[in-house]
Predict the 3D structure of the following.
Amino acid sequence: MQKLIIKGKRNLSGNIKISGSKNATLPILAASILNNQKIEISNTPLVKDVITMVELLKYIGSNIKINYKRKKIVINNKKKKFRTLAPYKLLKTMRAGVIVLGPLLSKFKKAKVSLPGGCAIGTRPVNLHLLALKKLGANIKIKNGYILAKAKNGLRGAKIKFPSISVGATENAIIAASYADGVSYISNCATEPEIQDLINFLKKMNVNINWVGKRKIKIEGTKKLKSANYKIMFDRIETGTFIIAGALIGTKIVISGIETKVLKKELQVLKKMGVKLEIKSKEIKILKSRKIKPISITTAPYPGFPTDLQAQIMVLMTKANGISTIKENIFENRFMHVPELIRMGAKINILDNVAKITGSSNLNGAEVMATDLRASVSLVLAGLVAKNKTTVNRVYHLDRGYEFLEKKLKNCKAAISRLH
Ligand code: UD1
């Protein structure tokens, strides 16, 4: 099993180019199922989850190819015969695989998709996905760990109102409604920038889809989809992670390939913590911060503070003078990194879904275990600022979502290497 070895306390400086967004790439690839015309998707991060989604689409029958050199994915499904099955073996490592349910059902009128199952951060239910597809006319049963969905006469446009906000369910509903007969209104949608990226892609494929309220989308379904070239947006979470690395131990880090206007909440929080930032529209410079201040935050759907940056900002909070708190409002079990950070010298107490971080602590290197994608990277951040050596085990979690993490950090003079 691979490990990352980090020798901490090295000042970071240099430039980091942010990769394309994993969470935008996954639903966009799933939406390609709808279209028989040629699709070219560029700026795709070639991380494990994206590769798994490509494998899943190949399994289903898609003619999909990765151009590693040009970071492009090309899909050409003319005259391709599909099977409408997404098996457990491909969904067990990547729960976002359930996003193929909507497009398969909409296009082929039936689908059999493995239930994604639980994971370290929570139970990962799919009731909201199913609610939306049922509203669009699907008949759904659960049998032997699989979702069996049918729509004999195809899906029909409908009014869907989500009882609570879900990124994945919003995406499944949007993609399914794009190929349904008639008009759909979907309300109480997630509004994450990655959802906007999916909408932009569907528009390029000729779907008439627009926001008609703050959390409400109108979609006119169509079967006349067009060929499309699309560039994936930048990864917001990777950006936040590297800004926090800069805040922890940077002297001057310049982050490019981004659009700062979608990072309002994150930047507001970091500024309040005293992180020295120079913000331009497509670039951020992080300079050495003199003093990090404590803060209280709550994770929330966009435009709130993202749960996917919670573990990383917690590491920065260990460096703040005083008490910070984090209320985790999205997932029920997302403090798996806390025991490991405590082993490195952090002072953190958890009560229900609130973590109380008392700083400032001097972290010490230790052998630690990664439990999920964002928890893993928080341990890397802790290792960068800790005294001596940190060994992060189970780095396969990191590889699911971070492209060239070590290379990007090494370019900024970090002492990080991988043990195979
Ligand atoms: C997506 C992101 C993930 C991020 C999360 C929240 C991708 C591939 N993943 O995950 O990185 O952490 O958004 O921003 O984009 N829920 C239900 N029923 C459902 C679906 C969800 O109760 O049918 C609950 C979940 O348990 C959770 C909350 O809704 O408590 C939000 O989850 P959701 O927004 O669906 O997360 P994902 O789409 O899985």
